[in-house]
Specification:
Elements lengths: L4 E2 L1 H6 L6 E5 L9 H8 L6 E2 L23 H10 L7 E5 L7 H10 L5 E4 L2 H7 L27 E2 L11 E4 L3 H5 L16 E2 L15 H7 L10 E4 L6 H11 L5 E2 L3 H5 L14
Parallel strand pairs: 1-5, 2-3, 2-4, 4-5, 6-10, 7-8, 7-9, 9-10
Length: 281
């Protein structure tokens, strides 16, 4: 069972393994069709395309939800069944953004109790660097799965806005430092961060080639002095890259943190919620 990362060499050995299923999660916030265009042009053989907007999110309701709200769990289970997945299927997820989008689906599979899911370390770029096989053949739609995911216990923890408390939790913001500080905000109408949150950009989980750091390096990155003393809650702009921090902390051997799914873009829909800027002392 692979439940965090898979190497390109291991995936290459299992391309014909009927128990493995590959998902191409490439997506760009700047051009929401770019990922699918890239997939149509070339992808890892056998991969199915998964869109952040169309498959991994519910509709955004401005002023009420974050930008990428989770779908209803029952709808997500139906989508997973439509992909022909069962809890025994080994799912491999990749993108071209260091795992930022793939980690979202990894987390969502764990949300419904599917443990056999792993992100391709280094993603599309690592596959290309290794000069491994690609094609543009769209695989046939799989047979509908009848797997009873509704009976499986979830493998994740969720904390909603009203339960966030920096005195009781270590709240980690996965965005880059300028957005956390409120120096700039390219996506949301209010800049800043949740009061008391610490900044731990997801980009810092990766090396110069877009592969995840070693477990030891990730342990250092996430050692805030009180990591072991408080439960950790991860958030970001819309609940996507926060999953990258969750995956990274799991790789590092920490207890799996909780996710605040709505994240910053939901937090700011309620004007009564406080906003902090600058650095936390």
């Amino acid at each position: 069972m692979l439940d965090t990362l898979v190497s390109v060499s291991e995936l290459a050995k299992n391309l014909d393994n009927s128990d493995w299923r590959i998902m191409d999660c490439r997506f760009s916030l700047a051009d929401v069709q770019a990922g699918q265009r890239s997939y149509v042009e070339s992808h890892i053989p056998g991969a199915h395309y998964i869109s952040l907007d169309a498959d991994l999110s519910n509709s955004h309701i401005p002023g009420k939800t974050g930008r990428h709200p989770l779908p209803k769990k029952s709808d997500w289970i139906a989508s997973v069944q439509a992909l022909g997945l069962t809890p025994q299927t080994q799912v491999i997820l990749y993108d071209d953004a260091g795992g930022a989008m793939a980690a979202r689906m990894w987390w969502m599979l764990r949300w419904i109790g599917h443990e056999n899911a792993a992100v391709l370390n280094g993603g599309w770029q690592a596959w290309q660097r290794a000069d491994l096989e690609v094609n543009n053949i769209v695989p046939q739609a799989p047979a509908q799965s009848q797997a009873d995911y509704s009976s499986l216990p979830t493998l994740v923890k969720i904390v909603e806005a009203d339960a966030l408390d920096s005195h009781q939790q270590l709240i980690l913001d996965a965005r880059e430092i300028p957005r956390y500080r409120g120096d700039t905000e390219p996506l949301d109408p209010v800049a800043g961060h949740i009061p008391g949150a610490q900044c731990s950009p997801y980009s810092g989980n990766l090396d110069s080639q877009g592969c995840f750091l070693s477990p030891e390096a990730l342990q250092t990155k996430f050692s805030f002095g009180n990591t072991a003393d408080k439960p950790v809650v991860c958030y970001c702009g819309s609940g996507v890259t926060a999953a990258h921090n969750i995956l990274s902390m799991k790789i590092a051997g920490f207890d799996e943190p909780a996710l605040y799914p709505g994240s910053w873009s939901e937090w700011i829909t309620d004007p009564s919620r406080a906003v902090a800027t600058g650095d936390e002392e």
